[in-house]
């Protein structure tokens, strides 16, 4: 016989080893349960008692299956991305899976944008970046799940486009999707008309269904893991350096050709050719920016990564990937973007190079500011 226990909420096989996988509950809670008692996994427990959604991670195959299911249904899709890491938060091929379903693109973490930025420009850039991926959102909106900004607008857009259909919320991990949904569920004013509180949200292995007033559902899908996010290469203790929590402030460096800027040991910027010029850097205010000579930069990095140039921490060097190099000479004023970390404003005609851990994107976009 099978002695395995199953969560009575979502049906997942209970396990005590992987907090991020389905069916987890702490060994102590399992031990406390009396024989024959109904047991919830931690995720269902938190949902029932605190109306709080905990993320669960799926394998790529399961996620593909889920996306296919979404494509086959008649629904509104809400895709949450991190505006500091668009390339690290797009779902590859999403446009093929959504079929004819409308997509609302939500650029989250707007609270971290520098004060001087024009949000319309960010929205336009985000829409264009989506187009470049083949995704054609019916609307693009910036939000801050953390500060509760623009959530009313988001709910209004959802009501406008869902036309009495289900709503699937999709996104890769670390975009703030859980924070956003928790905020929506708990925000009594905004959600008052949309979500019916008469029924508990239901869970299944791969989704959480929040009942809406008209009998349809807002469905939270598990976040897929995007392995090439900067966040995966950084010690959790240093995460606030790559995922800023306060509005980022620009720092201006007057650089001559032949100078290098290190972003701690995580990334690097070389000024290769052009006249002396000001380069504005947008990155977390706490992140070390270190200027040195290009000619010595390789040796300097070799010697100092893990100590002066930290993060990465010394104990993480063994698993930290080498930096990959990308060269650009923009024709107009542009941002050299180091995905998930920040960007450097590069004047037209300057020849520069950007470096990031292998797998993390370095790209050029028209200057946002
Ligand atoms: P999920 O994996 O997409 O569900 O993301 P989470 O909701 O767990 O959030 C990932 C990280 O981003 C957490 O450290 C959050 O505190 C942070 N975060 C979420 N939303 C925001 C936001 O609007 N602004 C900022 N600055 N951080 C956010």
In whole angstroms, how far apart are the ends? 65 Å
Overall spatial form: globular
In percent, how much strand structure appears in the residues?
25-35%
Structural class call reads alpha+beta
What are the distinct ligands in this entry? guanosine-5'-diphosphate
Please, could you describe this protein's structure?
There is one protein chain. The chain is α+β, with helices and mostly antiparallel strands and 369 residues long. The protein folds into 3 domains: 50 residues, no CATH class; 161 residues, 3-Layer(aba) Sandwich (Rossmann fold); 137 residues, no CATH class. Strand 6 and strand 7 form a beta hairpin. About 3% of the residues have low confidence. The structure holds guanosine-5'-diphosphate (GDP). This is Ribosome biogenesis GTPase YqeH. InterPro entries: G_CP_dom (IPR030378), GTP-bd (IPR006073), GTP-bd_ribosome_bgen_YqeH (IPR019988), Mito_lipid_metab_GTPase (IPR050896), NOA1/YqeH-like_C (IPR048422), P-loop_NTPase (IPR027417).
Features:
single chain, alpha+beta, Rossmann fold, 3 domains, 5-stranded antiparallel sheet, 11 helices, globular, binds guanosine-5'-diphosphate
């Amino acid at each position: 016989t099978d002695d395995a226990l199953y969560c009575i909420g979502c049906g997942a096989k209970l396990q005590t080893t992987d907090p991020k996988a389905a069916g987890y509950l702490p060994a102590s809670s399992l031990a406390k349960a009396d024989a024959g008692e109904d047991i919830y996994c931690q995720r269902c427990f938190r949902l029932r008692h605190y109306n709080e959604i905990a993320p669960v991670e799926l394998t790529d195959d399961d996620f593909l299956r889920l996306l296919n299911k979404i494509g086959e249904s008649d629904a509104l899709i809400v895709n949450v991305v991190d505006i500091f890491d668009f390339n690290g938060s797009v779902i590859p091929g999403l446009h093929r899976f959504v079929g004819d379903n409308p997509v609302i693109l939500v650029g989250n973490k707007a609270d971290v944008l520098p004060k001087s930025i024009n949000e319309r420009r960010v929205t336009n850039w985000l829409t264009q970046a989506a187009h470049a991926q083949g995704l054609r959102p019916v609307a693009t909106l910036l939000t801050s799940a953390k500060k509760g900004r623009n959530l009313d607008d988001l709910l209004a857009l959802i009501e406008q486009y869902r036309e009495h259909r289900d709503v699937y919320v999709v996104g890769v991990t670390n975009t703030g999707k859980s924070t956003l949904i928790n905020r929506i569920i708990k925000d009594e004013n905004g959600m008052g008309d949309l979500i019916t509180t008469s029924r508990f949200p239901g869970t299944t292995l791969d989704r959480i269904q929040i009942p809406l007033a008209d009998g349809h559902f807002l469905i939270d899908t598990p976040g897929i893991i995007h392995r090439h996010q900067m966040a995966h290469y950084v010690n959790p203790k240093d995460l606030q350096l790559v995922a800023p929590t306060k509005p980022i402030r620009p720092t201006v460096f007057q650089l001559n050709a032949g100078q290098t800027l290190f972003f701690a040991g995580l990334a690097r910027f070389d000024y290769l050719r052009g006249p002396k010029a000001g380069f504005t850097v947008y990155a977390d205010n706490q992140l070390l920016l270190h200027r040195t000579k290009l000619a010595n930069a390789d040796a300097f990095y070799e010697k100092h990564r893990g100590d002066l140039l930290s993060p990465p921490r010394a104990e993480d060097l063994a698993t930290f990937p080498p930096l990959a190099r990308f060269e650009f000479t923009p024709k107009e004023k542009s941002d050299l973007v180091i995905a998930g970390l920040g960007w450097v404003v590069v004047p037209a005609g300057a020849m520069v190079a950007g470096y990031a851990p292998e797998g993390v994107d370095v790209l050029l976009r028209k200057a946002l500011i």
